[in-house]
Description:
It is a single chain. The radius of gyration is 15 Å and the shape is globular. Helices cover about 0% and strands about 75% of the residues. The protein has a 10-stranded antiparallel β-sheet with strand order 6-5-4-3-2-1-10-9-8-7, with no helix packed on it. By secondary structure, the protein is mainly beta. It has a single domain (about 10-140), classed as Lipocalin, CATH 2.40.128. The protein contains no helices and 10 strands.
Amino acid sequence: MNNTDNAYRIIVENTQTIDAETDTIDEIAYGSYDEKNGKQYIRYKTEADEQNGAIASILILDGDSLTIKRRGHTNSSMVYRAGKKHAFPYETPYGIIDMEIETDKLISLLDENGGTIELAYTLTVQDETYYNDMKITVVKR
């Protein structure tokens, strides 16, 4: 299944808790959905703002794992698999920051008509721990 660019609206809602402080970050973009060799791919770009350049994202759903690759102003490749830890470098214009994620939950209800991916994970950055609850909604336009 191959779909054209911008045929889908991608909504990413991430609620992050740090020391009892909660912050929600919402991102809306338009992109594509493809299926190839048993994997599902979501591609989209976020627009540049005053502080950051544009970032191209690709989400690869492969069975019980989700890989999110981001390229642009910052670069990273994060792998989410329930019950597993994944260390990765987060590249910024100011240098590389080592990070680790431990996935608690990964649920995907996604096909060519759209759907959702739900993630719960802990992010560790320089001995600081952040709990994240993320929902990715894909809507066919």
